[in-house]
Amino acid sequence: MTDTTWVRLQASTRCLACTEVTAVNAAVDGLACVGCGAEFAIPEQLWDSALAEAREIAEQLDNNATTSRSFDAQGMTLNLAIAAVDATCPHCRQPWNALPERACPACATAVSVRAFAAGTLVGEDVHMLARERRELAPQTLSCSGCGAPLTAEGDTRKLECGACGRETVVPDEVWRRLHAPRAVASWYLYGGASRAPGLRGRLHAFDLAAGAGVVYAVGSHGDTPFALLALDTDPLGIRWMVDLESIGKARLMSLCAWADELFGYCEGLRTIEVFDAQTGAHLRTTTAPQPVINVAPDPDGTLVCQTMSGGRIRIDAEGREQPLWPKRGLFAGLFGARRLAEEAGGRLGVGLDGELRIVLGDKVGRVARSGEIRWSVPAPSVNVSIVTPVASPDGTTWAVFRTVGGTMSVEQMLAFTEAMVSGEEQSSSVLVRVGGDGEGMAAVRPSDQEEYTSLAVTAEGEVWLATGDGQLMRLDRDGQLLWRQAPLEDM
């Protein structure tokens, strides 16, 4: 596996109108085609996803190997050459062993260094960043009508003759001389290996949890089939990783977090493993009185558990049962479906605001710490959820539902839920967002192509999803895609 503290980038675009290639020597938000002068934008989100994917791809390359990827945007295609190589100064060719501050430490030549979502960009073309046009001598040509001399300075392709008033189009060869293309140059993405060495290897996430600036995942990573990881979100990289098999905890498939602790468990077992969220160190094992299917840590230090028998219990750190909050029968009262509550179980989670979020069948609800039912609302269309819901600090609730596609009886919903749990039922997914007071239910990210299997929200309000094949997706607080992990077949 390659150490990709540095990823070398060489970028260009191909205009869809004239097919001319233009060098892109910086992560700019737009530029003009050197062939026809067409202006096109490069959205920041495209750079975010392209650079994040470039790092993942580089991690799979041999040292000094190069590959390429193409990304489509409106009016053009962005082509990116990606290499896993050490960075060198473009002026003196000396290696950069560390991130330069403002200048090359060897020759003192100024170097562009700026933070970006995927890492730190180093060595970009400062003139391109400033949207400066290269100073080139004006070109003289003749009016196509009367032959009078015309001066082309490169600001427009259409020139009006002062003598006869006729319009003349600047020929391609003259335009190219006025817009002599920059050569494609190298610039770099720096990951900061001392703190976040990148994802170095394919991560297949079984379940997610999150905190402030960090996402936790349980799953497989590279050659480690059972791992617990903490991922820094800015820039994205591994903070720490625990080989669960090496400590005898390989059966963990589900994860939740509160404060400085992580709770890992496997549905159908009684044991709940507790880890230090700062270091990944195993702290203790809590044994529940009954096998559990869902665990939610409460701010008071206890755990609210859903059991295999369809009930709910509250336990302390030693596994001793405590008075239940919420009270028994709450699920049936919340959703008006006692049999569904008892047999389907639903899922519950504690939001970052400290209040319970519950999904059951086709509904999602919020319960205050006093036990008061704040609200319950149906999901768009007819849906079923078996994914633990989450809530951001401002009270916004996020939940994932699987699309059923028609009216279902309680018996049908129970059968469908059981088939989803067993993996026999494959269906499309929808991410929904509900305002803090239960208002504004919205289907944010429907998908007919993949199933969303896990959900987490950071203290900053970013939403993270895992798909059925373990692929990660990162969304902003409005549910707009910021980044997604490269598909396995592209790695």
Description:
This protein is mainly β and 491 residues long. The protein has three domains: 6-133 and 179-190, no CATH class; 139-176, no CATH class; 203-490, 6 Propeller (Neuraminidase). It contains six helices and 37 strands. Strands 1, 2, 5, 6, 7, 8 and 13 form a seven-stranded antiparallel β-sheet that branches. Strands 18-19-20-21-22-23-24 form a seven-stranded antiparallel β-sheet, with no helix packed on it. Strands 29, 30, 31, 32 and 33 form a five-stranded antiparallel β-sheet that branches. A hairpin with a 5-residue loop joins β30 (390-391) and β31 (397-403). Mean pLDDT is 79; it is low at 192-197, 337-344 and 487-491.
Q: What is shown here, in short?
A:
InterPro entries: Quinoprotein_ADH-like_sf, WD40/YVTN_repeat-like_dom_sf. This protein is mainly beta and 491 residues long. It folds into three domains: 140 residues, no CATH class; 38 residues, no CATH class; 288 residues, TolB, C-terminal domain (Neuraminidase, 6 Propeller).
Q: Give the domain tally.
A: 3
The largest sheet, given as strand count, sense and whether it forms a barrel, is:
7 strands, antiparallel
Shape: elongated
Number of helices: 6
| Assigned CATH superfamily of the largest domain | TolB, C-terminal domain
Examine the secondary-structure arrangement and name the CATH architecture of the largest domain: 6 Propeller
Low-confidence stretches: 192-197, 337-344, 487-491
Q: Helix content range of the residues, please?
A: 10-25%
Which fold does the CATH topology of the largest domain refer to?
Answer: Neuraminidase
Binned strand content? 35-45%
Number of strands: 37
Mean pLDDT across the residues is 79
Computed structural class: mainly beta
Tell me the radius of gyration. 28 Å
InterPro entries: Quinoprotein_ADH-like_sf (IPR011047), WD40/YVTN_repeat-like_dom_sf (IPR015943)
